[in-house]
Design goal:
single chain; about 350 residues; alpha+beta; FAD/NAD(P)-binding domain; 5-stranded antiparallel sheet; 3-stranded antiparallel sheet; 11 helices; 12 strands; Pyridine nucleotide-disulfide oxidoreductase domain-containing protein 2; Amino_oxidase; FAD/NAD-bd_sf; FAD; flavoprotein
């Protein structure tokens, strides 16, 4: 249990709750849920520029990371087709992957196919079900993809000024503006309470909020004096109590709850808001292809990790379809912006490619 681990190492309840957020982030779990300790490990393992457990902002926004990978691939001769949706994987008579068919009917032939789409999209939508083992299909269908995350992107005309650390007169970012700011984390009981509400189909009345201001480090993201604020909030169920949809009214009501909470910590925040973009779990699924809105393509629970990710016997990136590989967050070792699944899958694919 995450709560037990933190109790062993720390005494301060606000510190324990703040660290606990990395154990429940993106997970429909509470600090008291068995296995939640692993999610914390997943977020602090590894290093960045020699600093263990460190995370960083990407200069230019997260899209800049994709662009850097794209440029590196193009420099090695890769051809990249954006906005070209794949209809299905092309299979030969022997059942092996031979390429993909785009939605406009174009066939792209290849010796290998790597998919960083979710296991659900890859195997349940892009492959005819009769080509796959029944127990494998059943396993993919049963993957727990519940997600508690609603992401809110906000544009503000001034830097938030927190009661705990008011802004300087010149309005310049202070050290805490350049970090991850955790709100509603005074105690782990608050996180558990927020989780419990979501399990009953109700968005948390006092949501867990991770607030980042990337423009405090990267001024090019916003006009001078203005800022972009990224809010990673939970818990919000994919389906609301009574089967109610996440319509405009429900979205705005939840966002208002989040903004009221921030206002209590940083008076004037609501008045500074120029615009906001609210992405509930169904929005994250529809726009980004995240099953259930899950940022990891499936829960990072103990029954869905290591040899069982995405299914037992298929944790090594190869799939039941010869020459088709899974290289996204749904593969071992799971989600997070670290590239481990893609790097590992590439090595496996290259090893096979040499024998074709």
């Amino acid at each position: 249990l995450l709560g037990q681990i933190l109790d062993q190492w720390f005494e301060s309840e606000p510190l324990k709750a703040t660290l606990a957020t990395d154990g429940v982030i993106g997970a429909m779990a509470s600090p008291h849920t068995p296995g939640s300790g692993y999610v914390l490990l997943h977020h602090v393992m590894g290093e960045m520029e020699g600093r263990r457990g460190a995370w960083g902002y990407v200069s230019g926004g997260m899209g800049a990371l994709s662009q850097a990978i794209a440029r590196a691939a193009a420099a090695r001769g890769a051809h990249i087709f954006a906005e070209k949706a794949v209809s299905h994987v092309l299979l030969g008579r022997d059942g092996q992957a031979q390429g993909v068919v785009l939605q406009d009917g174009t066939e792209v032939r290849s010796k290998l196919v790597l998919s960083n789409a979710s296991p659900q999209i890859t195997f349940l939508e892009l492959i005819p079900q009769e080509q796959l083992p029944k127990d494998f299909v059943q396993r993919i269908q049963q993957v727990d993809t519940r997600s508690p995350v609603t992401k809110i992107n906000v544009a503000v005309d001034r830097l938030p000024s927190f009661l705990a650390a008011p802004n300087a007169r010149d309005g310049q970012p202070l050290p805490h503006h350049q970090c991850s700011i955790h709100l509603n984390c005074e105690g782990t009981h608050l996180l558990h309470q927020a989780f419990t509400e979501a399990t009953h189909g109700h968005p948390s009345s006092r949501p867990m909020i991770e607030l980042c201001i990337p423009s405090a480090l990267d001024p090019g993201l916003a006009p001078q004096g203005c800022h972009v604020v990224s809010l990673f909030t939970q818990y919000t169920p994919s389906v609301l109590a009574g089967g109610r949809p996440w319509d405009k009214q429900a979205r705005n009501a939840y966002a208002d709850t989040v903004f009221d909470c921030i206002e209590a910590y940083a008076p004037g925040f609501k008045a500074s808001v120029i615009g906001r973009d609210i992405l509930t779990p169904p929005d994250l699924e529809r726009i980004f292809g995240l099953p259930g809105g899950n940022i990891f393509h499936g829960g990072m629970s103990l029954d869905q990790l290591y040899f069982a990710r995405p299914a037992p016997s298929y944790s090594g990136y190869r799939s039941p379809i010869p020459r088709l590989y899974l290289c996204g967050s749904g593969a071992h070792p799971g989600g997070g912006v670290m590239g481990a699944a893609g790097r590992n899958a590439a090595h496996v694919a290259l090893k096979d490619f040499r024998h074709l």
